[in-house]
Structures are given as structure tokens and as C-alpha cells.
Specification:
single chain; 370 residues; 13 helices; alpha/beta; six-stranded mixed beta sheet
Length: 370
Amino acid sequence: MHLLILILMMVLTMALTGCGSKKAKEPKPELLVPEVVSGEIEPEEVEKAISEAAMDDGSDPEEAMRAAENMMSANNGRRVVYLILESESPIFTEEKNSLSKKLTGAGYGVTVRYHHNDPASQRAYFEEAVTCEAKAVVCDNLPGNDILEIVRGASDAGIGVFLVNEGMSLSGVAKAQVVTDRAALIDDLIERFAAEHRDSTGYLLLKGAGEDSRSVDIMTRVSHRLKDYDQMEELMVQTPLTYAEADTENALREMLTYHPMAGAVFCYNAAQVNVCLRVLEEMGLSGKSIICVNGDRSEIETYLADGRVEASIVRSGAELGERTAETLITFYKSGRDGINERQYVAGKVIFSEDLRTEEATENLPAELPE
């Protein structure tokens, strides 16, 4: 054990003076400890040894653990840098936890970085991955060609790049891409919505946000599919400048002022749904059909259950994370022959009516009274 502590203290010294030291002002990464650091050392022993060494040195044990694991993962060639959009959204939390559990269970170290759609941060994190000789980078929601050069550079340096969700082109850059089959889900949603609204009084459509081209593209598909049905009249489309509540609210109020008799409002995500419910109530227009095109179940399920939202496409962050981790593990075991370059995670279309029917069925007694 004393030898282990000595080795770990040396690792700490290297870690604190080496990789990542140039970015001291940036938020520290979240590092998730591998379940297997080596074939002979249990993770509890590693954590205890690092904590004891840190206390003897007067350092913070948590910081010491992160620094040591960072260096150890890099040195043994099994470090994965995981770039994800944000830390607050439940779907990203589910994805992170699922992916990390699967990868750490396979012996990989996982460093989590939140890029917030900031190209400068994304470039810095890719440079960090190259400097620390990471095994792979998993990227969720990268914005396309803005950082294509640095991503291609990481790939050329031998780092495997794996993409989650849409965004950057796969060709020539990534080993694989895991996405929700959104086009099929939109088609299913609109087909059923149109069938259940044959006497529609028209609909309003919030087109994502102007700063997010992906959301605009998705809502454009929704609009095109709705136009396939003669009875569905598109009354007004608005594209809020951002996802800020004020921009969403202004767009909604303008649409509802011009078209108070509209029967339905299509929102891009749960944040827009929240604003829509409040604005409709304040304007005395509650009771309209609200459709969410890009929800995650944890955020939207309550609204679906009580009927305030009629339908939503829901994605599973846990499924995305697990499939991505499985893809990475399989690739390094079997090469490209073991995976498809583009893999689809199903997602689901949920209508409020279905949830209430399921609940009613579940609450039936096992045997009905005679």
C-alpha cells in the first residue's frame, strides 16, 4: 500500500503540473472513476490511497482523486473525453450517467466536459484530448463545420471520434454516429395528429430558435408534413431569436394576438411548452392542443399525464448514452466491421390519451365484481 501511495503521489505531481495546467481558469472537468483502474487494484483501495496521500500533503482529496485519475486514464490509453451540451437538462444527465456507467464498467476513464455550444470551448477540449492522448472523444450536439478542422485533426492523431445526435457530418471524421430517428417520429406524430383533428381551426408553429439551425430544420419538417394534410391550415410561424423565455413569449403573444382561434400550437421543446402554457393562461386561451416535437420524458411526462400537452416526441437520454458506449466498446474490440457508421435509437411518440388509457387499465382490479 505504501508503494501504491508513493506512485499515486508521483502521478498527482505530474497531473497537477502537466496536462490541462494551461487552462486553470476554466471550470474543472468532472472525472468519473473507472471501476477497474488496473487488473490488480480495486477502486476502493485507489480512492483510499489517494485520499490518505492528499491529506498528508494538505491537498483536497477530491481534487487529488480527479487529477490522479485524469493522468492514470491518459497514461493507460483508456481515457474517453465526453463533450456534452449542458449539465442542467435531465436528458443530458441521463445520457451522461448511462454512457459513463457503461464505459467505466469496461475499464475506461471518462472525463466530462460541458461545451454549451461554444466553439472556442469545443476547440480547447479537443486540443486537451490530443495533448493527453485520449483514446476517444464522444461529442453530443456539436454545431457542424465550425470546428471541423480541429475535430479532423484529433481523428488524424489517432483519437476515435464518436458523435451523438445530429450536427457535424459523419463522413471522414467520426467512427460512428448515434442518433434518434427523428424523421420517422415526426411522420408518425403528424399522421396521427391530422387524423384526430379533421375539423382543425389551424395551427401555430414555434420554429425552434434562430440561433439553433438544427431546431429550425426539425420544425421545418414538421411544417412540411402538416401541409400534406388538406384540413391542416398553417396560420403563422415564428422563429424566436433565442430560447430565452422573453423571446419565446414575444413570439407566442404575437401569434396568438393575430390568431386567437388557432386550435393547436407546436412547440420545439419543453422550455417552449412551459412558456406556452403560461402565456395561454394569461391571455385566457387555455384549452388549445399543445404539441412538443423534441421533449424528453422526464420534463414532459407530467404535462402529458394531466392532458395539458396533447402529444410529444420523447427521447431517451439513457438509451442514447448506453448505445453510444456500446458502439465505442464494440469498435475497439472488433473494428469497423462490428458496427454500423450511423445507428438509430428509436425514441417514441406519446399522446396524452394513451397515457390516461394505460393508467386506467393499470388501476383496474384484478377481478371485476359480479
